[in-house]
Amino acid sequence: MNERLREALGVAVRAVLVFGAVAPFVPAITEGVPGLARFGAALDAWFSFQCHREEARSLATSAVCARCLGIYAGLGLGALVLRPVLAPARHVAWLLVAGAALLADVVSEALGWRPPWAPLRFVTGFLLAYPVGISVVRALGRHDLKFAR
């Protein structure tokens, strides 16, 4: 892939991930707004397809559950901030620890050891997705904070 195409792809992916961080709030914001309501409805349809949206597992006016919101926010913020810059082994360690924490959250709730707690679901989703957002953008070679030249 030539450098220019790779850079354009990096900008596009970064923009999509950053938009994804705010997208769960768009359906509520655009509801009833002429010209934007359809866009919000389309996003809401996507979110209803990919997330269970159970009230006990959700936060505020988001169109997704707390864990999905954490994942979207983590991907977007990681793609935007691109920090910290870690050695690959430390980055993998972060992913493994965050994955284990998310798995422990899922299993402990599923086995009835504790009730659903939205803040914990948000944090475990965020901690796993944040380094993924960094990785995706860095893999495409976009290391600065500019979206366009």
Helices and strands in order:
Layout (H helix, E strand, L loop, with lengths): L2 H20 L3 H5 L6 H14 L15 H16 L6 H23 L7 H22 L10
Helix pairs in contact: 1-4, 1-6, 4-6, 5-6
Q: What is the distance, rounded to the nearest whole angstrom, between the alpha carbons of the first and last residues? A: 20 Å
Structural class: mainly alpha
Mean pLDDT: 88
**Beta strand count:** 0
Rg over CA atoms: 17 Å
Could you estimate the helical fraction of the residues in percent? Answer: 55-70%
Global geometry: flat
* Approximate strand percentage: under 5%
H and E order? HHHHHH
Biggest pleated sheet: none
Can you count the helices? 6
Low-confidence stretches: 145-149
Outline the structure in words.
The chain is mainly α and 149 residues long. It is built from 6 helices and no strands. The chain has helices spanning 3-22, 26-30, 37-50, 66-81, 88-110, 118-139. It is flat and about 45 Å long. It starts with a helix and ends in a 10-residue tail after the last helix. The relative contact order is 0.18. Residues 145-149 have low confidence and may be disordered.
Brief rundown of the structure:
This protein has 6 helices and no strands. The protein has helices at about 5-20, 25-30, 35-50, 65-80, 90-110, 120-140.
Characteristics:
mainly alpha
